[in-house]
Amino acid sequence: RPFHVEPTNIVSVNDDMQRVTDEASAMNKRIHYYSRLTSPADRALIAPDHVLPAPDEIYVYSPLGTAFKIDSCTDGYGKNSSLVTIFMIWNTMMGTSILSIPWGIKQAGFTSGIILILLMGILTLYCCYRVVKSRQMIPLTDTSNWEFPDVCKYYFGSFGQWSSLLFSMVSLVGAMVVYWVLMSNFLFNTGKFIYNFVHDINVTDIVPGTNGSNKVICPSAANDHPPQNMSVMFSSDNRTGFELFEEWWDKSRTVPFYLIAVLLPLLNLKSPSFFAKFNVLGTVSVVYLVLLVTIKAAHLGIHLEFNWFTDNEFFVPEFRILFPQLTGVLTLAFFIHNCVITLLQNNRNQENNVRDLSIAYFLVGLTYLYVGVIIFASFPSPPLPKECIEQNFLDNFPSDDIMSFVARIFLLFQMMTVYPLLGYLARVQLLRQFFGNAYPSLFHVLILNLVIVGAGVAMARFYPNIGGIIRYSGATCGLAFVFVYPSVIYMISLRRAGQLTWPALIIHIFIILLGLANLIAQFLL
């Protein structure tokens, strides 16, 4: 769940008294909200007693892979402009899913992939709008501190409380598992690049690839194993040292375990707020990826051939039965439903919430479309088939590619700073529910972190497929937060108000069935 931490603001004695009253009221609501996220002993999100929180610094955290701070973005009353609100939503949604969008388009087919991105963006936007409205339809005097899980608890009781916790944990742990797989990937390729550069080793990977300065490779052609330094020309007789490096620096057998030494101690910190200072790299990484995609496409050119229903050697049909794999990825790519209320409640003009949310979704969809379409269209077919597009499109560029090396460094450092924050959110949500304290003891925290880290290591070792992990976790948590809960809550609200009609009932039952079909299809295709 996103939250923002706010420092001090000294109110002048000459300020208008009404402003002081309004700010004090808003302060009390915010402190009450923060206090529910941590234990009383953990002061990470609780303002000190002697200060008034001011809204000139905002931290937003997302299980999708972004955490950022915006300085001096409010108007002095704790409210953001529409521009800042739109940017916050865009930045929160832009996560690791962007790396799998080209692969998803390949699985669905080029034309159907574009259509699905547009349709899923519209559908998830509508469901997100229903989430925002759900709190407003509750006949209580003060729900300003509520997020969507609180709304679920109001309508469904303890079932809503525990089920929303379950699906929130699925999204958080799923994101952390994807992070571990990606960090292992980026660390492996970074180490490989540095070793070969330092030892002046010329590497020719035994995988199909293009020639020239803008090389593109097809790792999946080597029996789904990542490219290794198999054919090497040495400038010295250091063959033994190179073989030893290959043995101890393996993408799936060793590197995932090396990360434990760095990240497990960070997960056990009581407060990871220090890492939030670096998370502007999330935005920088996305911008750099867009730049990388643009430059690569300019050098590679466009390689498209439209085959509507039949395969050929180098291209895929425009419509493929595997399209649910893309919808699973997109469910997580557009997922912000469990935290959108917090992001919008500080919008200066609440009447613009629908407009600002729609613009943010449009920009997110445009970013996904741009990256996915450009990578798919510029992938050099022939000589390589489109089927070679990897679940992480950076894997289609060799480890010695300079631009890809810089991208991996950016993403590796950003993910290593966000990972402890995601672990902290998982700890707060889970341990506080069971023990009433986000840090009951080092033993409890260590056991939880070992389970989470163990899941990440196991996936990186035996199932390092981020597209698969994203679509499974996206379809699972999306079933609840995107499709079922918003639709059911809306129908209950209409029924209580005596305004439920057959068209509204049919439409929202259809949305629920779409979410259920989306989840089932992930296990069938």
TrEMBL record:
The keyword Lipid metabolism does not apply. The chain crosses the membrane at residues 83-103, 109-129, 162-182, 255-271, 278-302, 322-344, 356-377, 402-422, 442-463, 469-492, 504-524. Keywords: Amino-acid transport, Disulfide bond, Endosome, Glycoprotein, Lysosome, Membrane, Metal-binding, Sodium, Transmembrane, Transmembrane helix, Transport. It catalyses: L-leucine(in) = L-leucine(out); L-glutamine(out) = L-glutamine(in); L-tyrosine(in) = L-tyrosine(out); L-asparagine(out) = L-asparagine(in). One of its GO terms (cellular component) is late endosome membrane. Its main location: membrane. One of its GO terms (molecular function) is L-amino acid transmembrane transporter activity. It is a multi-pass membrane protein. Belongs to the amino acid/polyamine transporter 2 family. SLC38A9 subfamily. This is Neutral amino acid transporter 9. It comes from Certhia brachydactyla (short-toed tree-creeper). The lineage of its organism: Eukaryota, Metazoa, Chordata, Craniata, Vertebrata.
